[in-house]
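Today's session is about reading a structure prediction critically. Students often jump straight to the picture, but the first step is always the sequence itself: look for stretches that repeat, for charged clusters, for runs of hydrophobic residues. Only then move on to the predicted structure, which in these notes is written as discrete structure tokens rather than atom positions. Here is the chain we will use throughout the hour.
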Amino acid sequence: MELKVNGQAMTLPDIASDPAMPLLWALRDGLNLTGTKFGCGIAACGACTVHVDGAATRSCVTPVGAVAGKSVTTIEGLGSKDHPHAVQLAWLAEQVPQCGYCQSGMLMAAAALLAKNKAPSDADIDAAMTNLCRCGTYPRVRAAIKQAAKGIKK
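Below is the predicted structure for this chain, in token form.
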């Protein structure tokens, strides 16, 4: 099975080519893209959030067969060392991460929100950011999203 991941066509190895396999495991075990994390396995926590055709998607419950022909972006494809995404820069400026485990999913959810809404209100952020953070950095997440929105508007 072939997938378009982070802008590149990638062929899944046999161990990850069952269409029913969760996308999370195809990415992590099949393509060695380990930035997307396993959290709960029931789409509740958001640690596994990736973009599928630009939409924030919980990869732990999304069968890999459901993304055939679609574009998948993982945290590895959000930005680069030389050209970080605005949310990545804002996350650093606002010192959002503590333990960091949930952060790849948080960043992906925030980037998807800002792709649709360049000036989200607090209510918009609350509605879009359903990811869980055990460290409780939600006020920093909100501040970082607002800071990133200013950078994206430019």
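Discussion point for the tutorial: The radius of gyration is 15 Å.
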